[in-house]
């Protein structure tokens, strides 16, 4: 299987990628991924550029892609995310005030059906732009277009997205599936940051660089503690300070 982790960092995100990239590289090496750092052309809405980049890579022959935003760091390396995502498109769904919202900061895509929502999302965005119908939640960028491509309404007061679509009368096929929450926790989700979080997403943090740096340092400290725990004196108490950002 040909698989790759894909990301890019533009503008401020280049600095964030300095923090996240070593965690991506370690994860890629551990599970046999290529690591692809895209170089999208300048654009005021740079987040949109992930769509053509991922479409092109799938067309070039990749069997599976894992997109990770530059403001996400990997915390745990023991499990291949593909084992948790058998669907054409895998997304974590956040339970937030806006509804049950699939988040595109971390995505798993499988050839061939995984390319379909990307192509449709790009077409939706172009149609809306031409018709002068911007998304109500413009800050969602490509996420809003993908939600619409999957059958949801990104402009609804409470967003919901069906997990199936009908090919012909009486038949259904899975179009996308939910990734376990620990792959992409969100500070506004009622579940918060679980103790088994596999990634830390600095979205909504006042200082994303500082939050990411702290998350990496904490994960490294926890890893060292686990590596030496078998040699510790029985009954010793170790207190670990945690930091919560919102």
Secondary structure topology:
Elements: E1 3-7, H1 12-31, E2 34-37, H2 50-59, E3 64-68, E4 72-74, E5 89-96, E6 99-110, H3 115-131, H4 142-149, E7 164-166, E8 172-174, E9 177-178, E10 199-201, H5 208-228
Helix pairs in contact: 1-5, 2-3, 3-4
Characterise the protein shown here.
The chain has 246 residues and is of the alpha/beta class. It is 31% helix and 20% strand. It has helices at residues 12-31, 50-59, 115-131, 142-149, 208-228; strands at residues 3-7, 34-37, 64-68, 72-74, 89-96, 99-110, 164-166, 172-174, 177-178, 199-201. It has a six-stranded mixed β-sheet, sandwiched between helices. Strands 4-10 form a two-stranded antiparallel sheet. Strands 7-8 form a two-stranded antiparallel ribbon. Residues 236-246 have low confidence and may be disordered.
Can you describe this structure in just a few lines?
This protein has 246 residues and is α/β, with parallel strands linked by helices.
